[in-house]
Amino acid sequence: MMARSNKKVVPEAMDSLERFKYEVANEVGVNLKNGYNGNISARDAGKIGGNMVRKLIEQAENQMTNK
Question: Within 10 A of 47 (CB to CB), how many other CB atoms are there?
Fold first, then answer.
């Protein structure tokens, strides 16, 4: 079995990603609180993560086309 690693490629970006998570959660109508959020549904967690990925991909695509 492969061990998973949560090592961040750019540790300095952690604060920005955390703020981004709360911003996206607010946009999709999921109420996150500071600290533990294990009480949210998998559907809501998926909404947050999916929208984060979609926005990050969109941003990368825009950067690629504007070079």
Answer: 18
